[in-house]
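Chain entry —
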Amino acid sequence: MYLCNQQELVMMWIKDVFSVALAAAPWLLMGFVTAGVIKGIVAEHTLQRWVGGQGLLATSRAALMGMPLPLCSCGAIPTALALHRGGAGRGPTTAFLIGTPGVGVDSMAITYALLGPVMLVARVLAALLTAIVTGLLVAVGGGAVPAAPAASACGSCCGADETVYLEATAITEASLGKRLAGGIRYAFTDLLDDISTWLLVGLLLAGLLVTLVPPTSLAGVGSGWLAMLVMAVVGIPLYICATAATPVAAALLMTGVSPGTVLVFMLAGPITSIATLGVFRREMGSAALLWYMAGVIGMSVLMGWLLDRLVVYLEIDVSAQARAVTELLPHWLEVAALVILLALAIRPIRRLLGRVVR
């Protein structure tokens, strides 16, 4: 009897994992394509022009410019360092370092698929405001800037070697078509390789939460200032990319965690990591790091609290919105998108397909 119950739980878990994966696959596929297009058209001089300067306008530009780029928190480090050592101020550099991993076109797509339009808008606005406010805090209160170390800083904390984004997006004599093709190739090789393991972990954990935790069971403990503060503090040292965090966030929402607390998790986890904190302190100094952490924690909790108040005031059922989005696309399209993503994520199959296409 006990063995049968275990087998039933495993089958339920597998079913829930595939359910989440099917709902996310078409939107995730679209997000990768969009990320590849952005990769192909954004050039070095554009980044330097937007991120250069000081003050509110430059910081806001840096946050906006970084948000659609297909980089995780560790992947954003070499780009941010190159921009900072190229003349960008601490405020814009910090805003870029937060806005870039906080949300991207791939995570936007999967957020809409699994959490609905309200959570998508909340995530984008919260990431933008967190980047801007934290950038300004670091710029004003960061103290003296330490001398730049001779060596670069990141290594391979994402699970794959990260190249400097500026070098990959520099203007060349290649045609737009070739740059777009290169961007798409990057999205479905380097970018997919960087997040595929974490995305799988996120899907497995999301399925486990849905299977083992009854709906609304965490409603009493998954809301309020304390829950949000704990979520922010726990999320800061972790490394989970914005895309991989989304299935876990969807599962937390289904188990009764408030939308605001879920938003805090989606902000604090992807925005930073141990690697980010270490590099930031080395480049900007200890005082700047304290303002950085205060900005990320404070703004994440504030944005979560405001979202919970807004959802209650407007009587928005976020869970119902998420369920409605998953019903928009036909089942055959979800299956086809998932098959394509799996084929591209498995390197031997991807190489075989590449040889066939050639």
